[in-house]
Structure formats: structure tokens, C-alpha cells
């Protein structure tokens, strides 16, 4: 469990993400309202209050109440409807819990942490006991600068869980604004699959944030994004998801490699439990096969 100091840092990070997202929406709303005078913009005082907050600001109860009122304004909601891709997708969730989040003794819940965005730097180990068996998870950063650190971890692993966010199909990387985030995930996945060190290691592909993807695709069609314009599946979300899965696995150079794909929402703990149970069975089977106790892969 996180220490009180770590929890405080996480709370501060969530406050910062809310503030930065609302500031982006406010600027977009101002531009929108200048073209649509029928929708009034927020007051000058409200604008100055929001833009006056910085990355070190804490959302107090009073500030939280003011931010919630601004969030409810028609111009901000219109900006949210036509938001840019770099706005936090889970902003409605956080404003729905603003009274709790702005409390002086706020401690982020497990769900809060799942909705927030945190970058992993370096490699972090986590020990988990599941069905009386101990597992060691190593969480590694996905940024380009972090990937060179992966290779020394590959030799001793029993499975790889690769997580990609479906909802990022229209978003671009902070480090390279020309590179689509989902396309980058596909490229990295292919690099991992083609690495000879993990040729025999099963890979579990988690296509996450299905809920946000389903909401976003109603207003931003998948093939409207330039790098996915070849996709002809626009009306049926299930077909689009199958197409995305195809993009991930089509260039796998080791056809015998075991790849299990799950389309998930990490917030659905019941589904995650079932998925992990399947992963557990596969890893145990793979270990038995490595010891010569079974002859075929688990299917």
C-alpha cells in the first residue's frame, strides 16, 4: 500500500490533471464562443481564476465548488463535446466527485487512480499473491526513453502483459506530436513480438479503455484519423475492434508465438479477475512445458 506521502503526491497529481484539462477547455471555449455569439462565455473573473491556477495549486473546497460551476457552463460543455485529443478523457468522472476530491483530507481511491494518468519511469516491482501463488509484476515505462531499459528484464520473465489504450486512436505523443499514440503502441508491440529473447514467452495484449473508445467513436470516426484511413469498418464497433486487433498481430514474425488478446475496461474488476485467471492458467502451462512435463501449449 502507498504511504501517506505517496498518497499526497497522487492527490496533488490528480488536482493538477483536473486544472490543466479545464484550462485547455476554457481556452477552446473562448475561441468557440467568439465564433458562436449565441453561447455566452464565462465571466472575466472566472476565467482569471482558472488561468491563475498553476501546477502547484491545490483544489480546496471553495476552489472545487467554483470549478464545478464553471465546468457546468454551456460554453465549457460545448468545448468538451468538441474537445481536442489532449484533454483528459475522464474529466466528467472527476467533476462528478469534486466534493470528495476537494476535501482537505482527500485520499485518492483505487478508482480515482485508474481514471487518472500517470507515467511510469524506470521499472517497478510488485508482488501479488493470487490463488496461493506469488507473482512478481514488473511495471516498465512505455516512453521511448524508457524502452532501452526493457531488454535486461526479458531473460527471466514468464509472460508479457502489453497494455494499449484504444481511446488514444486520435491522440498524439507529447514527445513527438507527429506520431499517433495508438500507431506507436502497435509499432512497439511488433518490436516486442519480434525480439528473439522472448520468442517462447506468451504475450497477453490488453486493449484497454473500451468504454472511452465506445463513447469517442460516436463523434470521431476511426478512419477519420489519417493513419487509420484504410479501415472500412466504421459503423460496427465490434468490427473496428477486430480491425485494431488485426493491426497489432498482423506483423508478428514468430507465427508460433502465443498471443492472447483481451478487449477490456480496467475499471471492470470482475472481468479483470476472469482475464487474470486465464493468464494464470497459461503461465502455469507454459512453465510446465518448459520443464518438459507437458508437450503442447495450453489452448
Helix/strand layout:
Layout: H1 4-35, H2 44-51, H3 61-71, H4 74-81, H5 91-96, H6 98-101, H7 110-115, E1 123-130, E2 133-140, H8 144-147, E3 160-165, H9 181-194, E4 203-208, H10 210-216, H11 237-249, E5 259-263, H12 269-290
Helix pairs in contact: 1-4
Mean pLDDT: 85
Computed CA radius of gyration, to the nearest angstrom: 22 Å
CATH class category label of the largest domain: Alpha Beta
Q: Which ranges are low-confidence, i.e. pLDDT below 50, for 5 or more consecutive residues?
A: none
Summarize the entry for a quick read.
The protein has 299 residues and is mainly α.
Can you characterise this structure?
- There is one protein chain.
- This protein is mainly alpha-helical.
- The protein folds into 2 domains: 4-115, GI Alpha 1, domain 2-like (Orthogonal Bundle); 154-291, P-loop containing nucleotide triphosphate hydrolases (Rossmann fold, 3-Layer(aba) Sandwich), CATH 3.40.50.
- The protein is built from 12 helices and 5 strands.
- It has a 3-stranded parallel sheet with strand order 3-4-5, with helices on one face. It has a two-stranded antiparallel ribbon with strand order 1-2.
- A hairpin with a 2-residue loop joins strand 1 and strand 2.
- Helix 1 crosses helix 4 (74-81).
- The protein is globular.
- It starts with a helix and ends in a 9-residue tail after the last helix.
- Keywords: GTP-binding, Magnesium, Metal-binding, Nucleotide-binding, Transducer.
